From TrEMBL:
Organism name: Neoroseomonas lacus
Protein name: Acyl-CoA dehydrogenase
GO molecular function, one term: (3R)-hydroxyacyl-[acyl-carrier-protein] dehydratase activity
PANTHER family named in the record: HYDROXYACYL-THIOESTER DEHYDRATASE TYPE 2, MITOCHONDRIAL (PTHR28152)
InterPro entries found in the cross-reference section: HotDog_dom_sf, Mitochondrial_HTD2
Highest classification ranks of the organism: Bacteria, Pseudomonadati, Pseudomonadota, Alphaproteobacteria, Acetobacterales
Highest taxon, organism lineage: Bacteria
């Protein structure tokens, strides 16, 4: 087992990844858009070639498509294929900061510039961690449609047979101006993973989630949690979405229900949160409107 100093040195050796950029192309196809619509319970036939998509849907395009031989045992692409080879076995989404300038249109090709913004080591209560920040710049016809900074947390694996260390629960706020209950069904989570081309096994393989990563059940996809929060917030927002910040605080489990909540808009912004079936805070979000 390496020492903390050796771990920090290993992360320091990855700093030459910072600033690396790769380009992911997407045709923003009608078929893809209709699959997303169906997954979100929207009539797929309502979308036509040339239609502007909901502005926050850009997060479900531009997947990293790895060869099957490049997929690791957890379902993610092997380290170094797309992302820095951080020497910790487990990766999960942590949060994001998004600015949205315009919507993508069906049939109008666009690109994602994926830039490694930061690799930061941390040693905390639950052991060694590293935070990878990716900056995704979405461009269409020479214009910047959105900028998405996404944080992923890498952690040590729990000892065999032991559960993953859980974040101490915090009660969700009780002052919601609106709320919406959503079932995180297996088909919904599977379809979201499919449209985003995410094969992480913790979202669909219960044996793997329990035996290898120490979770009590299959884990809700954090990107889907953010998507559902945004969809709920936009029903109550004062105008066009221009961005959002989000942080995931506690896992949700596939098959459970989540309560999506929000405060009344103020100064063009809305505070939102998600709570699990026990009333624990699982995610927070601030949505900005114009």
């Amino acid at each position: 087992m390496t020492t903390d100093a050796e771990f920090e040195a290993a992360i320091a050796a990855l700093q030459d990844w910072v600033g690396r950029e790769r380009v992911v192309e997407d045709e923003i196809g009608l078929s893809s858009a209709r699959r997303i619509a169906g997954m979100l319970d929207i009539d797929p036939a309502s979308l036509k070639q040339g239609d502007a998509l909901p502005p926050h849907w850009f997060t479900m395009f531009f997947p990293d498509i790895a060869k099957q031989s490049d997929i690791g045992p957890d379902g993610h692409p092997n380290k170094g294929v797309f992302l820095p080879p951080i020497p910790l076995p487990r990766r999960m989404g942590a949060g994001r900061r998004v600015t949205i300038n315009e919507a993508l249109r069906i049939g109008t090709p666009a690109i994602k510039r994926a830039i490694v913004a930061q690799v930061l080591p941390k040693i905390g209560r639950t052991g060694r961690m590293a935070i990878l920040t990716m900056r995704h710049v979405i461009e269409c016809e020479g214009r910047t449609a959105a900028v998405d900074e996404f944080d992923a947390m890498y952690r040590e694996a729990p000892p065999p047979g032991q559960p993953t260390a859980a974040t101490p629960p915090v009660a969700a706020p009780d002052n919601a101006a609106w709320s919406e209950r959503k079932l995180l069904s297996s088909p919904l989570v599977f379809r979201y993973s499919s449209v985003t081309w995410n094969a992480h096994r913790i979202h669909y393989d219960a044996d793997y989630a329990r035996d290898e990563e120490g979770y009590p059940a299959t884990v809700q996809n954090g990107g889907l949690t953010m998507q559902l929060m945004l969809d709920a917030a936009l029903k109550h927002g004062p105008g066009r979405i221009t961005g959002f910040t989000a942080r995931l605080a506690r896992p949700l489990w596939v098959g459970d229900t989540v309560m999506l909540c929000g405060a009344a808009p103020a100064d063009g912004k809305m505070a939102c949160w998600a709570a699990d079936k026990d009333g624990h805070l699982c995610a927070t979000m601030e949505v900005a409107f114009a």
